[in-house]
Structure formats: C-alpha cells, structure tokens
Design a protein that fits this description.
There is one protein chain. The protein is mostly helical. Among the domains are: 63-86 and 130-236, Cytochrome Bc1 Complex, Chain D, domain 2 (Orthogonal Bundle); 240-290. It has ten helices and six strands, in the order αααααββααββαααββ. The protein has helices spanning 2-6, 9-36, 63-77, 88-94, 98-106, 138-144, 164-172, 219-234, 238-266, 268-271, and strands at residues 109-112, 121-124, 188-189, 197-198, 273-280, 283-290. A two-stranded antiparallel sheet has the order 1-2. Strands 3-4 form a two-stranded antiparallel sheet. A hairpin with a 2-residue loop joins strand 5 and strand 6. Helix 3 (63-77) packs across helix 8 (219-234) and helix 7 runs antiparallel to helix 8.
Length: 291
C-alpha cells in the first residue's frame, strides 16, 4: 500500500485501469461460464421459424391441414390430452360439413344428468358438446401418467414460447441424448423441451395412421397438421379477424381520400388567394385577390 502511494498520478491511473479491466474480464468470464454451463433445466434449443400457411398478413388457415390435424389429435393425442376449446359445431364451420360434424359428435358418449330419478345417464354427443376428456378429473389423469396430468391442448399454442413453431419442433425433435447427458429412466431426450428430457414418449412416427384424403402420414406431415389444428383450436376466429381488418382498412382508405378532398375544398379560398400590397395616402395596405 505504501508503494502505491509513492507512485505518480499517471501510474496510479494506469494501475486503476488495469485493476478494473481485470475485474471486468473475470466477471464476464464467470457470467459466460454460468450461462453456458447452467443447470439442465435452463438448457433447451430455440425452435426455428417455419413458413406457416396462416402466417401472412392476409393469409388464412389451411382447412385441409386442420382436418388432417383433427384426425391426428383424435387417433393419437386424445388418449391422454384434452382439448376443451373445440366444440363439434366449430368443426362443422371449418373442416367438415354440418352433417359430418353431427355424425362425428354422435360417435362420442357423454355423461349427462341427473334425470327425473336423480340419476346420471350416458347419451350420444351433440353439436354443442366439446371434445370429450380422456379422464374424468385431473387426479385420475395424474394417477394414470406417473403423478402428473397431461396438459390441456386447447390453448397450448399460446402457452409456449415460439407458438406453433415450438410444437412442431417438439413433436419432430426427439433424438438420442448427446454424450455426457444423462436421461433418467422413463424420460426421453428432446432439445426443444426445457431441461431436455420429458416423460411423453415420441407420439408420432411414419405411418402412425392413415389420412382420409390419402396424404402420406409421415412424422413431419402429422406434426405439421396437428399443429395447424391446435393453432386453430387456440384462435378459431383468426380468419374472421383478418377479414374484418381488411374491411376496416378499406373503409379507412376511402375515408382518408374523402377527408383529403373535403379538407382541400374547405381551405381552397385561403390556398388560392394572392396578397397585393399598394401604397395609399402614405400607408401600406394589403388587398387580397383571389385567383
């Protein structure tokens, strides 16, 4: 300390700069080490952006993809996951005819009641019914799935960062764990899931089902279609919103043009006048003359 006091002011300033640089460099190296080698729960890959059919400013949903996506949900996902945002009548408005939606609802069985005797009874589904749940309650769902109930898929698209890009990447991202990464028994490695390992096994594979329209049911095709269906399930008014926006923008454009010409007509007498200055009896007077 006594040696530092004997240094000149220039040397003291240089030593201070070196000390600050050393401390800053050590802090930066520590922060990079923590971010790069953090806990397993913080490691996950960010999904890439895919060109979805509805992602354009005035683009609409792909209804054929939504219909195939409903088939994937019904035959693969509905065994564990519910989708409480979709009613059968909504299917009739988008990817089915009303008759097909009514027949699809009748295939489902719902518990209703009580009846006149105060007892519950089973009935066939109606257009106003929502897609049935695979389990009667959350406790039964958790018990059947190792202690944790599968999430509802009605709004799952908006509940995850990346929206539909995340879902598609998650469904197609199952792979072998890299060297040095230990996956516990019963878990499956997926780099897009936070933590890298999830209990849901790969739900999709080539030929997992047969589409009614004859489209080859590859893993990526199934993932794309079920993601489109879940995107529609989370925002079924998407197309109507864009139609309304197009109407409003068109109306605003017409009003803007009309306002411009009206404003020009109102102020025309000021914009087209010319001021002339003349001398009269030793004073300067201004006279307005209109063109």
């Amino acid at each position: 300390m006594s040696t530092f006091k004997t240094l000149s002011a220039t040397k003291k300033f240089a030593c201070s700069l070196l000390g600050l640089a050393g401390v800053g460099g050590a802090g930066l190296a520590l922060s990079l080490e923590v971010s790069a080698g953090g806990s397993d729960a913080d490691r996950f890959a960010h999904p890439p952006h895919f060109p979805w059919a509805h992602s354009g400013l005035f683009s609409s949903y792909d209804v054929k993809s939504i219909r195939r996506g409903y088939e994937v949900y019904k035959k693969v996902c509905a065994a564990c996951h519910s989708c409480n945002s979709v009613a059968y009548r909504m299917l009739g408005n988008v990817c089915m005819t009303p008759e097909e939606a009514k027949a699809e609802a009748k295939r489902a069985v719902f518990l209703d009641g009580p009846d006149d005797k105060g007892e519950m009874f089973e009935r066939a589904g109606k257009l106003t019914d929502y897609l049935p749940k695979p389990y009667p309650n959350d406790e039964a769902a958790a018990y059947a799935n190792g202690g944790k109930a599968p999430p509802d898929l009605g709004y799952i698209v908006f509940a995850r960062h990346g929206y539909e890009n995340y879902l598609f990447s998650l469904l197609t991202g199952y792979q072998d764990a890299p060297a040095g990464y230990v996956v516990d028994d019963g878990l499956h490695f997926n780099p897009y899931f936070r933590g890298g390992a999830l209990s849901m096994p790969p739900p999709l594979y080539d030929g997992v089902l047969e589409f009614s329209d004859g489209t080859p049911a590859t893993r990526s095709q199934c993932a794309k279609d079920v993601t489109s269906f879940l995107r529609w399930a989370a925002e079924p008014w998407h197309d109507e919103r864009k139609k309304l926006a197009l109407k409003i923008l068109s109306l605003l454009g017409i009003c803007t043009v009309a306002s411009f010409y009206y404003n020009r007509h109102v102020w025309q007498h000021l914009w087209t006048q010319r001021l002339m200055y003349v001398k009269k009896q030793g004073a300067t007077a201004a006279k307005a003359k209109y063109n």
